[in-house]
Amino acid sequence: MEFKHDDATALKRCDATSGVPSSGPSEPAISIDEAGIAELIAFFKVLAKWDQEAQTMKKCSNCGRPAVFSLNAIISTLGISKRLQESSAAVPFCDPCLHELCGRLCSDALSDCVNNALTTLNRRLRERATSAEHQERITDPRA
After folding, report:
1. How far apart are CA 19 and CA 2, in angstroms?
2. I want to staple 90 with a disulfide (CB 3.0 to 4.6 A). Which of 66, 68, 70, 101 is the partner?
3. Are 63 and 100 in contact (CB under 8 A)?
4. Is 84 helix (H, G, I), strand (E, B) or coil?
5. What angle do CA 9, 14, 17 make, to 5 degrees?
6. What pTM does this model have?
């Protein structure tokens, strides 16, 4: 089956070989205007963007779930006149795995520092989400 456009801007089912409207079961004609087509195109563009973002989302280095944090180590020398520093590459983690890692750190001081940083980041993420939701309600009267 293929569709053919008639004078009333409706699409009708036609026989693929003859182009004549089919004599099959009667179905309502589909009417699509330019604005409707533009909305569909915009919708599919958004879907394509979401698909692309989902494919590029980093995975947790421990379990493979979507990562929400990355951990970098900065190691510095102490007690020498010109300090040396080196930082590691980022290692992605999901929230549960990063919490598990914090619980396994061998130094209480290091564990406390990483936990404090994680707690602060989680608080800031919640504040950002709340602020974004509030801003969306202000700008979109339908919400």
Report:
1. 8
2. 70
3. no
4. coil
5. 135
6. 0.49
